[in-house]
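Justification of resources, computational component.

The compute hours requested in this renewal are based largely on the per-chain cost of generating structure records like the one below. Each record pairs the submitted sequence with a full structure-token output. That output is archived, and it is also reused by downstream analysis tasks.
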Amino acid sequence: MLAEDVDGVQQKLKKKLNFKNLHTCLKEAILLDYYVSGFLWARGMDFSVIQYIKFMTLLDMLLHNLRSKYIFFLFLRKENLVHFLIFLRKSS
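The structure output for this chain reads:
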């Protein structure tokens, strides 16, 4: 997916997430946009494959925490998120 344009990334993630009702289901459309935006941001940061995996895992974890209303405030605090992103950037 690294070489795909925005539409290509969206199509591959749509298939991977098994979304079939993007035109009629706002939830699926929002989730797809969330993951596509995160992936494209990470691609712009020139992450390694391991960093992509960690970042996408972070996005998924934050989403699940929001869904269950048990938000980890540690990650939402700006200083800690910045430190995590710096760690993510340095790890290979």
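The helical segments are 6-16, 26-44, 49-67, 73-76, 78-90. The CA atoms of residues 42 and 77 lie 20 Å apart.
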